[in-house]
Each structure stands twice: as structure tokens, then as C-alpha cells.
Amino acid sequence: MKYLHLVWAALMRRKTRTVLTILSVLAAFLLFGLLDGVRAAFNAGGTIAGVDRLVVASRFSIIQPLPESLIAQVQSVPGVRRVTWGNWFGGYYQEPKNQLIMFAVAANYFDIYDDYGVTASMRAAFDRSRTGVLVGATIARRFGLKVGDKFPVMGAIYPDKATGEASWQFDVAGIFETPSSKMRAHEQEILMHWKYLDEASAYGSGTVGWLIVQVADPAQSAVVAQRIDDLTKNSDHETKTQTEKAFNLSFAKQIGDIGLIVGAIIGAVFFTLLLLTGNTMAQAVRERIPELATLKTLGFTDRSVLGLVFFESVLLVVIGGVLGLALSSTLIPAVSAASGGMLELPPIGVRTWLIGFALMLAVGAIVGVLPALRAMRLRIVDALAGR
Amino acid sequence: MSALVEIRDVSKVYTRGRQSVEVLHGVSLDIQQGDFLALMGPSGSGKTTLLNLIGGLDSPTSGGISVAGQRIDTLRGAALARWRAVHVGFIFQFYNLLPMLTAQKNVEVPLLLTKLPAAERKRHAAIALQLVSLSDRAQHKPAELSGGQQQRVAIARAIISDPTLLVCDEPTGDLDRQSAEEVLNLLEVLNREHGKTIIMVTHDPKAAQHATHTLHLEKGTLVESAA
Ligand SMILES: Nc1ncnc2c1ncn2[C@@H]1O[C@H](COP(=O)(O)OP(=O)(O)OP(=O)(O)O)[C@@H](O)[C@H]1O
Ligand SMILES: [Mg+2]
Questions:
Q1: I need a surface site. Which of A139, A377, B1, B116 has the fewest CB within 10 A?
Q2: Which of chain B's residues have a Cβ under 8 Å away from the Cβ of A290?
Q3: pLDDT tens-digit profile of A54-75?
Q4: How far apart (Å, rounded) are the C-alpha atoms in residues A233 and A220?
């Protein structure tokens, strides 16, 4: 540690360069912290115990529908208080780039989802109209929709039986605003009648996308989930009962292997970081050749000079890395809040810090090894003579 | 009684690619404890080469060098580095201070290689700076000091671990007359009053006058001088 001031002096020799390098290390580790949070969020999905709403969907693929007959079966499972169901409805408004998040929901949907901000009068208006839709406030603002407006949608998957084409006519029955910010992401949704979809669509009638179960006692959720899944065991439509959070994540997981994506991004970022920091360290040693030679003259061994340069490189990366991870742990709550409950990033844990430290040491070592070897091999007489 | 530094038939050959140049041809030389030796000679005659061999910065191609009874021509790498740390103080033409450290910290650097605790290192450095009359500049960085002052800091650094030899390569080569005189007087004091053995390469006959002996090197061979 008594050499620390030597290493520090070396880093402070070119303050701007050191600060810029630390900033790029910081940015890389900030990203690492956030993305590792994303990865963890996608792998977590939350525990089932204590949750009062469960989603029942096909075990094999979330886009594979379940038979309508399952509804009654699930309703009779002990511990189940209420069952409702929904179906995904793909489509766009006016232009293909205006893709909609649209669900067809059962009549009793809002008995269970009392946190959507759908008022009694809104619900009454919705129930009165076969073609009615409830539109989230965000999406209504985006398309300038008002209650009573006609709302044509090009259906992506479900062609209309009657017209034989994919264009659907809806009427805006209500615009809802979620009372809690945690639910805010739902304001992106548009909800239509499942009954209308089921009657009108060309295929897939008599099926539902998923069931939502309200359990009588949240403490019993895990047991109830097991009972529900047992209903379809060994059938061709086995179910998986999970929390809403886990279900939402499985939607996102359809994009691809999140772990792989995250890994690829981090890999690219760190590769760039290696080149950048490596260049900094190479430069730092090159311009300090006479000083390193002086240290050797004074009796520092080749190995201790190697150690000094190596330590300098590791210190540089560790400073930036720790700052970056610390910053990401303060940003994570903000990111979660901004996602309106869609993405619940877990706080940066011991595991992430440990992986982070290992990464810092690895980057510092990889980047430091060549300059350190160069410093070690430096011949005093040549360096002193400027050769 | 044997000399402090014994150089026996030392040759140095530099090989660069396929070419090899013999820079020193069988140099033999004794330096007694307490000598202040000035080494003169034309540019390229091998003065720096010889000095580097005596200071253990390089090893001879053939021949033997012993200092205080210890063969150093056979030492290599870490062993040679440790020997330098204990036995040799170096003073260069361009001072070779570490630019980011204060005078005080520069003087302390050789002590980092000892077991001395921080407080002791500081105390020793303060004494050494006092000896070169720079106590008031202890917290200045090299860039804030004149050439003469920088060279005196370098001298403080060279003597801090009380080495057996002081080895100086054109210590006044970059200084004006007055600063040069200050530095030379300082070396003389170190030699006379503190009994330091000094070997100094110089081009300047005036500088050589401060020494107790002068030797001339020409084309890699020592030649007899009048002194
Ligand atoms: N590492 C080396 N490789 C090749 N040649 C070298 C090397 N070091 C010194 N020489 C050559 O050896 C000769 C003597 O060099 P040296 O530096 O000892 O001379 P010098 O007497 O100190 O000269 P000056 O007064 O100019 O400092 C020169 O011709 C020089 O080019
Ligand atoms: Mg020379």
C-alpha cells in the first residue's frame, strides 16, 4: 500500500485522459448493472405465495389456446374464488406501425381487475355494446380517441367471419385511467369483448388464451396453482399457473433469449472497453518510460515495476466499475418506476456486485498485462539513453 | 588493502542486429574509498557505459567488477536491483525526478524499498533536503523548481539510503555556471565531510577541478592523465 501514491500519481499525470477512461468504464458497468437487473427480472417472475391473482396458460406456449371447457373445471377447484379469461387480439390502427396491445376479455373481467380504474358507468356502457372497447388513457391520447368514436382495427390474426376480411369495427365505450402508478403500463391496452371475438372470428372459437384466477386465500396460492395444473396433467393442453408478473415476462421472453441478448450487448460493450482502456494503458506506459527506468535505477525490480503498472490498470477499471455499479443501483428504482410496473428490476445484489468485481479485475488484468510486461522488460540503459 | 571499486579487464560489446561494437576494451581501474573521481573524455568514448557498469545498471561482456568486496558483474535482474538500492546513489544530467511527486516524496522513493515506516521515511527525507538546502521547497513539484534545485533534490534522493557509491553522469551538463558550482560544491561537501565515494562523468574541466582525481577515457580505453 505504500506504493499507492506512486500509482495514483501515475493516474493523475494525465487527468483528463484518466477521467475520460474512468467515465467509459463507468458507462460500461452502469449498463452492466442495469442489464443484469433486466436479466434477473426476466428470470425471477416472483414467488406465487401471497399473490391473489394467478394466470393459467398453456404450459407449452403462451400463444397456444386453452379449451373453453377448462373455465368451469377451474372454477370448481377448491380455493378458487373467481375465474375470468382473456385472449390476445393482434391488430393495428390505420397504419401497420400503430400496433395495438389489445385483449379480448370476459364479461366478469373487471370483477377481478378492480384496479384498472374502470368505473361502473364505463363498465355499463361497455356491456351495452357488442363492439365496444375500453381504451387506456395513454393510447387514447396517442390516437386522439374520445368516447363514442368509431375505432377501426386491422386484425392481424382473426379475420371477421361475416365480412371475410381482417377489418374490425369497434366503438370507444370508455377511456380508463389507472388509479395507481404501478398499473400505469395497462393504460397502453385496449380491451374488447371476448364474446364478440369468439363469435366473429374465423377460427379458434371455443377457446380462450388464458384464465385469470382469483384465489380465496392468497396464502394458499401455491397449492391452488398446483391443483389447477393437475386438472390437465397428461392432456394435450397442459397448463402452467403462475403469477401475472411471470406471465407478463413470458410474453417478453418471446422476443428471444433475454440472457443471450443481454450477454451479447454486454460482450460488445466490454470488447470496446478493452480496446479503449487498453489503448489508454499502452499510452500511459509509453510516455512514462523514463520514469519507469528511473524507478528501476533506484532499485525497483522488474517485477515490482510490472506490479505497479498492473495495479494501475486494475485500479483504473475498479474505480470506474464501482462508480458505474453504484450509479446503476441508484438508477434502478427510477427505471422500475418509469416502466409503470411493467419491469420490476430487482435492486443490485451481492451476486451482481461479485460478478461485477470479477469483471473489473478481469478487464483490468487483460488491459494491464501487455503494458505491464513492457514496463517489466524495459532495459534501464536503453531507456535512460532514450533508445 | 583492496580498493572499494575494483574493475578488472572489463569489456563491453553492444550488439545491434548483426553488428556488434566493442565500446570498452579491457578497462582496469581501482577506486578507493573516499575518492572523488572525475571521468572525462570525448563524446562516444564510453564514459556512460563504464559508469553504468560501476553502478550496476548493466553488466560487462567480460571482466570483473567488485564493489566493497562483492562481485557485481555476476549479478543479474532482481539481485542486481537490490544491490543498487543498497549501494548506489544515481545523479543524472536531466535529474530524472518523478514529475508528479513533490520534492519530499521524490526523495523518499528509494526508502519505499526499505522497511522504514512512513514517519521515518518522512524524517529521513526532511534531513536529506536540509542537507541540500531545500527544506523550504519540500512540497514543490519538479516543474516548480529550477534546474539547479531539481538537481539538488536528485542529490538528496541519491544519498537518502546512505549508499556506498555516488554515481553522477554529467550532473552539471544542463546547468548554468552558478547552479553548476552549487551542485559541485555540494558533491565536494558530501565527499569531504561525509566521506562519500563519488564517480562523476563530466565534459567540463572546471567541474573536474572539484574532484580528487581525474581519468580520461578515449575510444574505450583509459589513458594516463597529467593529474
Ligand atoms: N545500448 C547500446 N547499444 C548500442 N550502442 C551503444 C549502446 N550504448 C552505447 N552505445 C554506443 O557506445 C558508444 C559509447 O557510448 P557512451 O554513451 O558510453 O558514450 P559517452 O562517452 O557517455 O558519450 P557522451 O559524452 O556523448 O555521453 C557510443 O558509440 C554509443 O553509440
Ligand atoms: Mg554519456
A1: B1
A2: 96
A3: 999 888 877 788 898 899 989 9
A4: 20
Domain boundaries, chain A: 4-44+257-384, 65-236
CB pairs A-B closer than 8 Å: 65
Which residue, A371, A329, A316, is CA-closest to A13? A316
Give the tens place of pLDDT for each residue, B71-110. 999 999 999 999 999 999 999 999 999 999 999 999 999 9
Ligand 1 contact, B52 CB (< 6 A): no
Please indicate, yes or no, if residue B2 is contained in any of the structural domains.
no
Query: Whose CA is closest to atom 25 on ligand 1?
Result: B43
Could you say which of A10, A290, A296 has the minimum Cβ distance to residue B81?
A: A296
| Residue B95 belongs to domain spanning | 33-58+87-226
Q: Please enumerate in sequence order all residues whose Cβ is within 8 A of that of A235, keeping only pairs 6 or more positions apart, or say none.
A: none
pTM over 0.80? The answer is no
Mutate to test the pocket of ligand 1, among B18, B20, B49, B52 (most ligand atoms within 8 A of CB): B49
Q: What CATH number is attached to the domain comprising B188? A: 3.40.50.300
**Distance from the alpha carbon of residue B207 to the mean position of ligand 1, in angstroms:** 21
Q: What's the one-letter identity of residue B190? A: L
Give the count of beta carbons closer than 10 Å to the beta carbon of residue A186.
Answer: 23
A160 DSSP 8-state letter: B
Is any atom of ligand 1 closer than 6 Å to the C-beta of B14?
yes
Inside any domain, residue B4:
no
Q: B16 CB under 6 A from ligand 1?
A: yes
Strand partners, B169: B201
Using DSSP, state whether A83 is helix, strand or coil. strand
The number of the ligand 1 atom at minimal distance from the alpha carbon of B50 is 18
Q: Distance between CA A14 and CA A22 in Å, rounded?
A: 12
The rounded Å distance from CA B42 to ligand 2 centre is: 9
ipTM attached to this prediction: 0.95
> Residue A239 has what DSSP assignment?
E
